[in-house]
Specification:
The chain is of the alpha/beta class. 39% of the residues lie in helices and 14% in strands. Helix 2 runs antiparallel to helix 11 and helix 14 packs across helix 15. The longest helix is centred in the C-terminal third of the chain and has 22 residues, at 323-344. It is globular and about 55 Å long. The structure holds pyridoxal-5'-phosphate (PLP). Residues 116-118, 121, 144-146, 206, 210-211, 239, 241-242, 266, 276 line the site of pyridoxal-5'-phosphate. Pfam families: Aminotran_3.
Amino acid sequence: MQYQRSSKLFAEAEKVIPGGVNSPVRAFKGVGGTPIFVKSAKGAYLYDEDGNKLIDYINSWGPMILGHAHEPVIQAITERAKLGTSFGMPTELETQIAELAVSMVPNIDKIRFVNSGTEACMSAIRLARGFTKRDKIIKFAGCYHGHSDSFLIQAGSGASTFGMPNSPGVTQGTAKDTLLAQYNNLENVRELFENNKNEIAAIIIEPVAGNMGCIPPKKGFLEGLRDLCYENDTLLIFDEVMTGFRLAKGGAQELYNIDADIVCFGKVIGGGLPVGAFAARSEIMNYLAPLGPVYQAGTLSGNPLAMAAGLAMLSELNTDSEIFKRLDEKTAYLENGIRQVLLQNKVVFTINRVGSMISVHFNETPVIDFETAKGGDNERFKKFFHGLLQEGIYIAPSAYETWFITDALTYDDLDLTIKAIEKVSRNL
Ligand SMILES: *Cc1c(COP(=O)(O)O)cnc(C)c1O
């Protein structure tokens, strides 16, 4: 692999952008070395500034579920751009994507579009607090809900990679309203309810955690949270920014058959453009301005280019009845392949997977929460990451990330990947 041009571009970027990047995990701090600068991408592949071709297992951290530069999405954006790129006025397009999303996702009557997953989660808890007239929320260690203040408390992912579970700049006043529980630990949540009677507005959770690697909910865990929320008049917020339109048409709610009160979206819903959304039944959504008292707004919210991309993406996912099954099968094939080669080479590992979310952990014990996720062998992960990069395979540059499988990957791509992992695992 050649890195000269990426190195040069990174050095230039560092002079004018903090750390050379606009989002920390891109900087390779968790694995060392120089970030790869992308020139273009198509289908399952990235093409970088040095002329390398990489098989991509990040896919913009999830959105490109049908592969890069997917034709119907690109076409929708291009055609829409000719009509003007932003008005700050309503368009029919917004109703079209809202209708489609509401038809695909269970338990929601209305949806509001914002510009990122961060905004979606931030607005969702404000809405939950306004609706319940309570201040506190419960979040789980290692779950990431964007970088708004209330959530930067053991936030997994980027925040974990850098060992900054609590960011400076978040006030004590804000932090005290975020109660922390262990993922997959129902007893923990029950205690928080007992000690904070009638004070908890909402539980926010990634129904399948994806920001400490992929961690599935234990059987009964989500059901237990649902019951506790009913008992305590607390809202259950599913942060489906990662799982939404990925694990099923209706996301984790559909997959596990659990009703959330508010659902947050991002990533896939924008088809690769900056989109987030939050949704709920009318009773809750009608609390939002201009109907209700909870304020929330956005100059570029519902932007026509973003809505066109999102609509094209959701339409494809809605009409292709085999898509989620196909993604699951491809990812299962990859999982089995990786298991075999790691076993052959006597590497200690755990693989977690739900549908097209998968992560490999160099742990001796099962990875079920943030504590166990942190127990992985990071040095081994670094070798694994750089070894794969040399073989033209691009996985996330952090041990705390899920791999995102795209439908553009062929079985040949998967075989090449398994072969590369075989080779790399001989020297782990
Ligand atoms: C990515 C992510 C977010 C934040 O979304 P941004 O668009 O990066 O602001 C929130 N929640 C989850 C579960 C995510 O994976």
